[in-house]
Amino acid sequence: MRQRAGIVLLSVLLLALPLSLLAQELAPVAAAATGATEARVVPRVFRNIELGMEMDEVKALLAADGVFAYRGDPDVSLLPRPNESLIEVSGLSYVRRAFFQFYEGKLFVMIFALNEKEMDHYSVFTSLSIKYGKPDSLSPSESVWADDATRLSVERPLAVKYIDLAVFNSLKTAGTAQQSYEELLRTEFLGGF
């Protein structure tokens, strides 16, 4: 009788263990969904490369990282807009290509185009959802997690983007102001006829 009771108890414990582990894994997602957690902090770092870093720091990290096939300065381009430059580098394995965009020498956008033969959208989305909770925005083309400083998105075709919102918003505002000024000049010019 005791042996049978021991087997029943052991069976119950073995059945309960996976459920307990599943509950622990899903607890952060459930807490985020109910709003029970503190304000979420969206990551600004991937493989030690962080938004806000100087270009030389990023170059050194790319050269030392086996995930990227960084060739040095041939991978660096100047963009048509002033004070902007870009490092475009091939990736190995999970990362097909990576883009690092700089404004005034500081990293403000990282884009990782992932190799869909090695990685799938569901796995990336699920991993981010477990770590950071439910996305703030969800559509067929992208899932977005954001806080006051950073925007992280998973997009289709499969890419992961990190954006420094302070720099991005200031560039967007400057672009709008420039566009308004150009429209004013155009209107003034046309008014001369």
Task: Kindly state the number of beta strands.
Answer: 10
Q: Structural class, from helix and strand content?
A: alpha+beta
Low-confidence stretches: 5-37
Order of helices and strands: HEEHEEEEHEEEEH
Helix content: 40-55%
Strand content: 25-35%
Biggest sheet: strand arrangement: 3-4-5-6-10-9-8-7
The whole-number mean of residue pLDDT values reads 80
The number of helical segments is 4
Q: How many domains?
A: 2
Shape: globular
Calculate Rg over CA atoms. Answer: 24 Å
Largest sheet: 8 strands, antiparallel
Head-to-tail CA distance between termini: 105 Å
SSE layout and pairing:
Blueprint: H1 2-34, E1 45-46, E2 49-50, H2 55-64, E3 76-78, E4 84-90, E5 95-103, E6 106-114, H3 121-132, E7 137-138, E8 142-146, E9 150-155, E10 159-164, H4 165-191
Antiparallel strand pairs: 1-2, 3-4, 4-5, 5-6, 6-10, 7-8, 8-9, 9-10
Helix pairs in contact: 1-3
Task: Kindly describe this structure.
- There is one protein chain.
- With 193 residues, the protein is α+β, with helices and mostly antiparallel strands.
- Helix content is 42%, strand content 26%.
- It is built from 4 helices and 10 strands.
- The longest helix is centred in the N-terminal third of the chain and has 33 residues, at 2-34.
- The model is unreliable at 5-37 (pLDDT under 50).
